[in-house]
Design brief:
By secondary structure, the protein is an alpha/beta fold. The chain contains 27 helices and 20 strands. Belongs to the carotenoid/retinoid oxidoreductase family. CrtISO subfamily.
Length: about 625
């Protein structure tokens, strides 16, 4: 018996060693490609030459190695990784500008970011920062937010409690203890639980979350063995805690309702009510900001602006106004290219590999032929996932400086009370007009206050980005209307949301008054569908509930699809958000290049730290 166990363990160790440490493919992180910092480009025309290159058949590069559908960070990320090892990649974007949720738009002189509000884990020489530096050749710069970086507001006017959230592995809990005397044990245990996924026992820091990536890269039979024997859960605390909800965990820690709310508030960054959210996913977000929060200098469009030239230098291209209507396959069910709609014409573009950043639902349900959609392996993956929560954004343009308006480089999470599950559930189940009058959770951020270049670029103006949840069904009746002419009823519903949310903002920020509002517009779930291709208006891709983070789901939904030469990248491969989508790109790149790029990034981060340290001496 013991001999059999030893043989199985030895075989397992050999397989894991092969797929963790053996890296035979080309390495995009082989050398440090950071270049001397160039001046910030502020002229829109110059930036648009990079970001708004329209699709034409004549612009398609010859002898493509890969086609990427979608230019969000998941798509651009894997395109740059491939370009860095000499691959010629074509990125196709259906919108009129590249960047996905990293794009910006301008209305009445105000520049608005649509999806980048704050990014964590960007300390110098850490692997995530190293990845971003290499993917932009060191041209993307980051400005730290204030500390506290978040302010959590609970309760109605007259009974509001504001709790500042600080970064710092010690300062975060220490500051909480000042507000909640007598709850020290609960706070310490909460911190132990949220950090244990990151550094468990004697294994390397971060091994728990990267084990999630490993499960998506090792051969399917081995992944299934780890799942069905229970070894995946034993090896990773992340998977062991994945089935427990945030509400379940925090309610065991304390009976203090405000503290429960503070433990749970960051659920808005991934889109599930605490009672439906996986504590593992929640812990990931809490730890993401423990070392601080940052914002891209020059705005979110800087991200795509500095990535696209790397794709082009390798002979590739990033083309917009290029809606892909289907993926092309040969008789052997191998992906061989895509079809792009140009006016009334279909243009076929061929490549030996197709990578989709369009999301699992768009890819499998919209871009595959019917007979391939029906494949059991495809249906199994779809059955494990569901659409995430719809998002509603309000873009506010204000007259005045950040000092005039009382704005800082931080964020506000505003809740009508501490009972978050009940509030959000009642809101989402309610009549749309009534729900619009009483939004229970609101995220408020000022991109203009976070960006040190803003005042020079847009003097005397400020912006606010306001985000909440909204049912796709509330707006579904207008989904087929022209985006600029969806009728009076649609505009009236948006106006109800705008009015009620503006009242909340003015009550929390007393220096903001109606006479300071120069521009206000709402983007609904069907707006998200039109501009970023979100099939049900979701802003975080597939749902991030407990089922999403089972070991079985993560072993099944992987970059390699059941169809040869078709890959998935982005949020739905890993987790949501900017960092999650980039991790999805790294995992996809690892599968394609047959090497562990996560380890490569870690190795380069250590190397650049040594080199930079020597330069300073």
């Amino acid at each position: 018996m013991w001999i059999i166990v030893v043989i199985i363990c030895a075989a397992l160790a050999a397989f894991l060693y092969k797929y963790v440490f053996r890296t035979p493919g080309p390495n995009p992180f082989d050398i440090d490609t950071r270049a001397p910092l160039k001046p910030l480009v502020t002229q829109k025309k110059e930036k648009n030459k990079v970001l708004k290159q329209g699709f034409l058949a004549s612009k398609i590069p010859e002898k493509l190695d890969a086609i990427v559908i979608g230019s969000g960070i998941g798509g651009l990320g894997v395109a740059v990784l491939l370009a860095k090892v000499g691959k010629r990649v074509l990125v196709l974007e259906q919108h009129d500008r590249a960047g996905g949720c990293c794009h910006t738009f301008t209305e009445k002189g105000f520049e608005f970011d649509v999806g980048i509000h704050y990014i964590g884990d960007l300390l110098e020489h850490k692997p995530f920062r190293c990845m971003l530096d290499q993917l932009t050749n060191g041209q993307l710069q980051w400005e730290p937010l204030d500390n506290p970086f978040d302010q959590v507001v609970l309760g109605p006017p007259g009974n509001r409690r504001t709790y500042p959230i600080y970064s710092g592995r010690d300062r975060f809990p220490d500051e909480l203890k000042k507000f909640f005397p007598g709850e020290e044990a609960a706070i310490d245990e909460y911190m132990r639980l949220v950090k244990v996924w990151y550094a468990y026992k004697a294994l390397p820091p971060g091994h728990n979350i990267w084990f999630l990536g490993l499960l998506k890269l090792i051969p399917v039979p081995l992944a299934k063995f780890l799942v069905y024997t229970g070894l995946a859960n034993r090896l990773s605390f992340f998977f062991r805690m994945a089935s427990r909800s945030v509400t379940e965990v925090v309610n065991e820690l304390t009976k203090n309702n405000d503290l429960r709310a503070i433990f749970s508030y960051i659920f808005g960054t991934y889109g599930n009510m605490p009672k439906d959210a996986s504590f593992s996913m929640h812990s990931l977000m809490v730890c993401h900001y423990l070392t601080g929060a940052w914002y891209p200098i020059g705005g979110a469009s800087e991200i795509a602006y500095h990535m696209i030239p790397i794709v082009e230098k390798a002979g590739g291209a990033v083309l917009v106004r290029a809606p892909v209507n289907r993926i092309l396959f040969n008789d052997n069910k191998e992906a061989i290219g895509v079809s792009v709609i140009k006016g009334q014409e279909e243009i076929h573009v061929h490549a030996p590999m197709v990578i989709s950043n369009a999301g699992i639902f768009n890819t499998y349900q919209q871009l595959l032929p019917k007979e391939l959609q029906a494949m059991p392996a495809i249906q199994k993956q779809l059955g494990m996932m569901k659409n995430g929560a719809g998002g509603l954004s309000i873009f506010l343009g204000l007259t005045g400086t950040k000092e005039d308006l009382g704005l800082k480089a931080d964020n506000y999470w505003i809740f009508t009370e501490h009972n978050m599950d009940e509030l959000v559930e009642t809101y989402l189940k309610g009549n749309r007009e009534e729900s619009a009058k009483s939004v229970p959770v609101l995220f408020v951020a000022s991109p203009s206050a976070k960006d040190p270049t803003w005042e020079e670029r847009s003097p005397g103006k400020c912006t606010l980005s306001l985000v909440t949840f909204a049912n796709y069904e509330w707006f579904g009746e207008w989904k087929d209307d022209k985006v600029t002419n969806r009728g009076t009823d649609y505009k009236e519903l948006k106006q109800i949301f705008c009015d009620s949310i503006l009242e909340v903002v003015m009550s929390v920020f007393p220096k903001i008054t109606r006479d300071k509002v120069e521009f206000i517009e709402a983007g609904t779930p069907i707006t998200n569908t039109h501009y970023i291709g979100a099939s049900k208006g979701e802003i975080y891709g597939a749902d991030h509930g407990t089922a999403r983070f089972s070991a079985e789901c993560n072993a099944t939904v992987r970059p390699q699809t059941p169809l040869k030469n078709l890959y998935l990248t982005g949020q739905d491969v890993f987790v949501c958000g900017f960092a999650g989508a980039l991790a999805g790109a790294l995992t996809c790149g690892s599968a394609i290049l047959n090497r562990n790029l996560h380890l490569d990034a870690i190795a380069l981060a250590k190397k650049t730290k040594r080199v930079d340290t020597k330069k300073l001496k």
